[in-house]
Amino acid sequence: NQRLSTPIPKKEYSIDVPNNTPQNAITWYAISISIIFIICILEKKMNYFSTRDKSLKFIFKDIFLRGLAPGGGLFLPAKIKKYNQEELNNLSQLNYNELATEIIFNFCSGEIEKEELSSRYKNTYSVFKDKEVEIKKIGEIDLLELYRGPTLAFKDIAMQFIGNLYEYYLSKNHKKINIVVATSGDKGAAAIDAIKGKSNFK
C-alpha cells in the first residue's frame, strides 16, 4: 500500500490506498482530497459551548434556535476574533450594515453565506427612519441615538434582525414556531413588530 497525505493548517490527514494501479491511486487521492475539503469546511464553523458543560458543542443554528443551553447554561463562542489595527481602521470606514455583517459573520461563518447575512441586515434596517443609529454632539457630550426603529425602542436594533434571522432558518428548514409575548415594558412591542408580516410565525 502507498500512503498519500495532504497537509492543511495545523493538521495532517492521510489515507491508505492500493498501489496496484495508477488509476486506483489517483482515484483514492481524489477521494482523500474531497474528504479533507469537507473537513476544512466543517472546521470553519464557529462552535459554541455551555457555561455549565464545556464538553458540549453547538453550531450557530443550534444556539440561535435554542436560546439557553441544556441545563440552563449560557452559550459562549469557542473563540473571539482579535482585530489588528489595520483591520480596525478598515472597519471604521464601513457603514452600519457593512460593519454589522463583518462582525457578526465571525460568529456564524460556515452557517450563513456573507452575502445572505448582508442582505438580512439591509432588509432589517430598511424599516428604520434615516440612519440606523446616529451619534450627536451636545457640547462635550456624544449622544448615541437608538430610537430610529419602528417602535422607537432601542430593542429594535437587535429585535428586527432576530426576526429576519428566524424567518431565514424557519424557511430553510420548513418549520413554524409560535411566539408568546408577555411584557410590562417596550420589549414586547419590539418583539411583535420584529416578526410582523414574516412567514412561518404564529
Q: How is this structure best described in words?
A:
The protein is α+β, with helices and mostly antiparallel strands and 202 residues long. 43% of the residues lie in helices and 18% in strands. The chain has seven helices and seven strands, in the order E-E-H-E-E-H-E-H-H-H-E-E-H-H. It has helices at residues 22-43, 60-66, 85-91, 96-108, 114-124, 156-173, 187-195; strands spanning 2-8, 11-17, 48-50, 53-58, 75-77, 134-138, 141-145. The chain has a three-stranded antiparallel sheet with strand order 4-3-5. A two-stranded antiparallel ribbon has the order 1-2. A two-stranded antiparallel ribbon has the order 6-7. Helix 5 packs across helix 6 and helix 6 packs parallel to helix 7. The chain is globular. The termini are far apart.
List the helices and strands and how they pair.
Layout: E1 2-8, E2 11-17, H1 22-43, E3 48-50, E4 53-58, H2 60-66, E5 75-77, H3 85-91, H4 96-108, H5 114-124, E6 134-138, E7 141-145, H6 156-173, H7 187-195
Antiparallel strand pairs: 1-2, 3-4, 3-5, 6-7
Helix/strand order, N-terminal first: EEHEEHEHHHEEHH
Largest sheet: 3 strands, antiparallel
- Alpha-carbon distance between the termini? 60 Å
The total count of helices amounts to 7
Global mean pLDDT = 79
Stretches where pLDDT is under 50 for at least 5 consecutive residues are 1-10, 35-43
Strand content: 15-25%
- Find the structural class using helix and strand composition: alpha+beta
Radius of gyration: 23 Å
Task: Tell the overall outline.
Answer: globular
Give the strand order, joined by hyphens, for the main sheet. Answer: 4-3-5
**Helicity level, as a percent range?**
40-55%
